Amino acid sequence: MENVKGLQCISCGRVFPADDRVFTCPECGEKGILDVIYDYDYIKKNISRETLSQNRDYSIWRYLPFLPVQKESRRTPLKVGWTPLYYPQKLMEVLGLSRLFLKDDGLNPTASLKDRASAIAVVKAGEEGFETVACSSTGNAASSLAGNAAAMGLKSVIFVPQRAPQGKVAQLLIFGATVISVQGNYEDAFHLSAQAIAHWGWYNRNAAINPYLVEGKKTVTLEICEQLNWQVPDWAIFSVGDGCTIAGAWKGFKDLYQAGFIDKLPKMAGVQAEGCCPITRAFLSGNPLEPMEENTLADSIAVGVPRNPDKALNAIRESKGTMINVTDEEILQAMKLLGHTCGVFGEPAGVTGLAGLKKLVAGGLISRDELVVTCITGNGLKDVNNAVKAAGAPIKVDPDLGELKKKLAGLVRF
Known about the structure:
There is one protein chain. This protein has a domain at 85-108 and 213-391: Rossmann fold (3-Layer(aba) Sandwich). The protein is α/β, with parallel strands linked by helices. Helix 4 crosses helix 8. The longest helix is centred in the middle third of the chain and has 15 residues, at 186-200. It is built from 16 helices and 13 strands. It has helices spanning 40-46, 49-53, 89-95, 115-127, 140-152, 166-174, 186-200, 211-217, 219-227, 244-258, 278-285, 309-318, 328-342, 348-362, 384-391, 401-409, and strands at 4-9, 15-16, 34-38, 85-86, 100-104, 132-136, 155-161, 178-182, 203-204, 235-239, 267-273, 322-326, 372-376.
């Protein structure tokens, strides 16, 4: 890869060749998460604002010089990326903001931001000659891998905890994945997947381990900046589980800055569910991360032992941002608020960032006139049971107009 200099350990700084099958630093162990280091001079020669304005490939591949894949590699035919960026005026009124943009990544092919990472995974697996790709997941990474693998003609093996929503499990099965329902929590599923991947020699799509997958996730902020005509938000708000998404988002902003596409960097705000917030606790206390129970309905961010906390914490601290927690009730309220004001259907984890934004504005940490972007990371159809909790039950009537009039008479909207 002409655009990649190597992989650098975020703990000790050691650099490894990008063509070696090294995912973590041998010296630092689990703390030795690697970062892709780019040749920005090469990038500047091969892509610019002007060339992008003429590019009609509206997918993540429009940013190929920023991605760690071979130019000639076969890519997934699914249209991943270039999701809409909305300017939700009604939502702004409710929140008390004058400049808010909403990135709806639930409109990716398998209905979550995780398609961005899985698109890179299947391309890298193809480059290295793998026939099977595997991962552990609470749901979205799994379905995105299964869908993208199917589109590329690869086999997928997915390990999910027993709490994974049936809507997401159904996606996996429809996409032809071999699904292993581990009767335990996400940590149990992760450990079993790691053992199986080592034993059978499958390609490892676990985003907290594989350094290339964060590079796919960063395309969400490459798009945001381009869609804002290279205006940089003051704040970028993301829900946080294992930390890979916010780490990727920050990496995207930094890469654009290093390549001269933008002239400043935003503050990053990470939002976790109160019932599973180990990264927030580490950020606020300054202490090493401690495991937590996975006690939240937001399954996609229910990660009690995150594998990529350091990159997430670095993103928050480097950007001079913050972290905040929200309750499950606040998450459900955000699902309803988003739907009522924007017509966008987000799953619990997908709207956790919005729930946190509401608290940050109410607490005065984000002011009315700051430019804010928040990302809806997954579609609500993945978890309809919690959507029903958020929205409430329908009005039940017999097939009688008189009864209908009585039921509707008490509703303000009529």
